[in-house]
Amino acid sequence: MKIQESAENYLESILKLKEELSRVRAIDIVNELGFSKPSVSIAMKNLKENGYINISDNGSIELTEKGFEIANKTYIKEKLITKLLVSFGVSIEQAKIDACKIEHVISDESIECIKKQLNEE
User: Fold this and answer.
1) Which pLDDT tens digit goes with each residue over 57-110?
2) 5-69: CATH topology
3) Prediction pTM value
4) How many angstroms separate the CA atoms of 115 and 119, rounded?
């Protein structure tokens, strides 16, 4: 199932924040993405209703298996594209910005070819 780019960004952000923090809360996502509290609240409600996240009584946000699969796939794409762009001489900062945009539209076939090129299999 194809989900919207914004949902992929939210899920990926939750995954990244979980690597840094013991628990992820909506305010952490607000701070990470720079979106308003109401926007993040609506997004979390939609992600929860669609089975991508669970929100505990204390406000902790956890990815479901379905949410983790999408977040992880998106994150892997970002890392591969960043690495490829850096290998071409793009600065790491710019490569991350560009990879974040490209990760949502690049095909699985292209990602597989990038993996082979970078010996990431």
Assistant:
1) 999 999 999 999 999 999 999 999 999 999 999 999 999 999 999 998 999 999
2) Arc Repressor Mutant, subunit A (1.10.10)
3) 0.87
4) 6
